[in-house]
Specification:
The protein is α+β, with helices and mostly antiparallel strands. Helices cover 48% and strands 27% of the residues. It is built from 4 helices and 3 strands, in the order H-H-E-E-E-H-H. The chain has a 3-stranded antiparallel sheet. The N and C termini lie far apart (38 Å). 28% of the residues are buried.
């Protein structure tokens, strides 16, 4: 598993983490820690967007025909913040406005490259590793159900 390096990759990992209960709590706890630091150092955080819940239209490319189609809408939560002129943004699947706001706060911390930026990066890496292990475990559970077909030449 490669570590998320860019701001977009880190945000993606945090958004995926919000979907898993134990990881969601870790993201929200880190955001609360960052907020406490802002408060104790008189740093202003301004919410610029939301947090709101809405829908985005999913677009899929059919792998056979290569045509795009719209299978439906996806429920998402979004939030935006500004800290000392740096903008943070977060979006996650589902109705989790607190999760979206936590991601936005973590994003602003990365943008400012402050005290907790390395902790945000580490959390994103941990979440990615945990998801990879979960996928491996899920695949191992499915392995006995895989049907191998013989090829006839």
């Amino acid at each position: 598993m490669n570590s998320p390096e860019t701001r977009g990759q880190i945000l993606g990992e945090l958004a995926k983490a919000i979907q898993m209960q134990s990881q969601a709590e870790a993201v929200k706890e880190l955001a609360n820690k960052i907020l406490a630091d802002y408060e104790s150092n008189d740093i202003d955080l301004r919410i610029t967007r939301g947090p709101i819940t809405g829908v985005v239209t999913a677009q899929v490319v059919d792998p056979l025909s290569r045509h795009r189609f719209l299978p439906g809408d996806i429920l998402v939560s979004e939030a935006g913040v500004e800290v000392d002129g740096e903008v943070g943004w977060g979006m996650c699947f589902g109705n989790d406005r607190a999760g979206a706001l936590a991601i936005a706060i973590c994003d602003a911390e990365i943008a400012r490259d402050r005290r907790f930026a390395s902790e945000v990066r580490s959390l994103a890496t941990e979440c990615a590793s945990a998801r990879a292990k979960q996928r491996e475990s899920d695949f191992e559970n499915l392995r006995p159900t895989i049907v191998e077909f013989e090829e006839i030449s």
